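Q: I have 436 residues here and want to know how they pack in 3D. Can you give me a structure?
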Amino acid sequence: MIGGLFIYNHKGEILISRIYRDDIARNAVDAFRVNVIHARSQIRSPVTNIARTSFFHLKKANIWITAVTRQNVNAAMVFEMLHKTLALMTSYFGKVSEEAIKSNFVLIYELLDEILDFGYPQKTDSGILKTFITQQGIKTTSAEEQTKITNQVTGQIGWRREGIKYRRNELFLDVLENVNLLMNAQGKVLSAHVSGRVVMRSYLSGMPECKFGMNDKIITDNKDKDTSATADVATKKKNAGIAIDDCTFHQCVKLSKFETERSISFIPPDGEFELMRYRTTKDISFPFRIIPLVREIGKTKMEIKVVLKSNYRPALLGQKIEVKIPTPVTTAGVNLMCNKGRSKYKSSENAVVWRIKRMAGLKEAQLTAEIELLPSTENRKWQRPPISMNFEVPYAPSGLKVRYLKVFEPKLGYSDRQTTKFIRYIGRAGLYEVRV
């Protein structure tokens, strides 16, 4: 088969050398370096013949791997063996590079002793080889990974490049919240929480520093201590903060300032990014209240009445409202009446879907469904799945408010007043269910 196997770097320096037969001389190493690696003309063929010696070579990144023979061998088998050798190296120590080969040369020689015997391929399966070559390869980090690690350790800003310029400096901030609720038919809350995200889009020149403050309860409590004891109770309730159970921040946020000052200070990445995630379980303002009433009329009829009440301010408009009311599996027909929106029975989902485009605050809507049931021999009672709901409202149900959003850029000289800022609140339904 083959007489030797060599691995070179891009300069032609030998990294790994293994000779299996006496017919391959040491000067074969220099012949390949001069005639292939340092060749003036481009080498297109993967097989090169020099002085009755055949060189089968592959190039991967900055590495050359070469099999040498003086015999008439099966070229396809040789290249299969070379590819398998590269795959084995990758499985043991990751990326094949000059640094990785230098760090794992002992392991590579062990592998070559098992892969080839007197130049003939033996074992090339990584699963078999790992049972008796148990040595762990040393994985080297690339230049990009090293730069990333260095940035994290030194505090260098890796998420924003320098020299960014915009004609208009704009900052968009969206407070996006999902309300999750499980309520029983009597109106008692069984479980509830809000999971929220603060998403920003930054179109700012230079390397600005932004400060973002919200009505976190710790800040508000500290301020309340300074107010007089005769302060108006209604004013205190209006300015009350929210109790955040847990939160996570983008890597650009300076956590030390948040712990001491409770202000979120950061140099924003360019474009859209998620500044923070949070979760709260207390003092949640539920946008809608569902009051269900189910009345069974004998074994073949049923009446479901649903009252939907909006609990937010009259000036606000709820949108994309959808209420899904489950019906029994034996439903034969449904007669629907609603004073707002449109309703439809979907037999494929065994549910009545009630859609309302818009609904103002402190309003009420009602739907009545008269259901005809097929006679059934089974005495199983209907399990009454919960009524679910989807919606979108223009406020944060957790009560989160942006107290301030400031931008500082001393180098380019533009101030906070010269920056256009947009703040938007959107509350959506997560798993919003009411038991019937």
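Q: Anything worth noting?
A: The chain has nine helices and 23 strands. The two ends are 79 Å apart (CA to CA).
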